[in-house]
Amino acid sequence: MNDSKAEFKRELGLLSSTMIVIGSMIGSGIFIVSADIARSVGSPGFLLLVWLITGVITIAAALSYGELAGMMPQAGGQYIYLREAYNPLTGFLYGWTLFLVIQTGTIAAVAVAFAKFTAVLIPWFSEKNLLFSVAGLGVSAAQVLAIVSVVFLTWLNLLGVRTGKIVQDVFTITKTLALLGLILLGLFIGRNADVVANNFSNFWGATWTHVEGGQIVSVEALTPLMLLAAIGVAMVGSLFSSDAWNNITFTAGEVINPKRNIPLSLALGTIIVTFLYISANVAYIAVLPLAGSPEGGDVFSRGIQFAVSDRVGTAAASTIFGEPAAIIMAILIMISTFGCNNGLILAGARVYYAMARDGVFFRKAGDLNSRSVPGLALVVQAVWASLLCLSGTYNDLLDYVIFAVLIFYILTIGGLFLLRKKRPDAERPYKAFGYPFIPAMYILLATAICVDLLIFKPRFTWPGVIIVLLGIPVFFVWKKFARTEAR
Q: What is the pTM of this model?
């Protein structure tokens, strides 16, 4: 039973808030996307540079968001910031895109990754095991498992924020320690002197390896201008792997002392994850050659570039653990993706709750259930994410998500400048570190990446723009419907 007068329960302290940031960021990407990055930039130095740039701009954005979180510690987070900095339409366009693509698309992509790695342990869940067809589309056992995982986590979060918090804390601490352990083992046990020497002999030799159908089509030596383009394209993967740090802002209504704990958790979480990601890639190049061939018969001849199914983490682990590596990594990634999706599911529903309270989402989604969580918002999110599990591949969703995310990150940090002028006397318990230089640096870098993606990945980026723009007529229709219903 829903109760529109119920209030959120403040259950999330600094530890749990930081676990939401870390847990929502670390999914399967760090174990997979370095292969595509390595193909795009062609050298260990630029592989690490891509991850370093990603970390710098992610931390810069998080430090900037801290000021907004301190000013407006309300459920809905970024939706609220955009609404207040610009207007209700801009806030709605973010919420609309979050629901259609950003949050639900990420949930779907992470759920599919969870299923793919479960299949390593239980082959029946393979993507190749087609169970039935829907509207001409084959539905695999992996897709069914992905949907079941989304439904199960949604049910857990319907039981209350304390349940969601416990799941988040346990899984995030477990996967963080496991990833740290893998890094240390790679650096000190699996380190291969010949591999290190080979990687350092061509540390900055930038090339772009173009692949079609699993075969190398061409290897392009990169001029300075094309190198910038290749880095921008390569950052799709690293940005996706570093995304969702802003999810803690969505849960502001349930955070204890949000004016302090949200800015702190944003800074701590993004710094910790950036350190882990860069360290993981240092470990990769300590145990595996970067360059390789898709026809290679072992992990060394395939290299980071052509690790089987792009599973760089598994390839690296195999140099340490041997045959059991695939199983060990599958378990680690299952834990990682399960915990990641718990955080995404917990946080995302709070945005739809805030939208419903403003009359621009299903009205009942603005009610809290008997456990003081937005029940209908959680259910609607689960339904749409489940449909996305059936509709697209991991990489397609990744490309859609990152472009839309960057657009709204740029707008939100731009809103920081606007609110400094519009509300100079507003309470700011925390002020953005390095203002105005660090926020401005983020805007410039993120804009450059967006332009790069529009040029070099138009097939996926332009649909993201169209999705955002489609929200404009939807906003006015919804507002009119809400006024009619209120009469």
A: 0.92
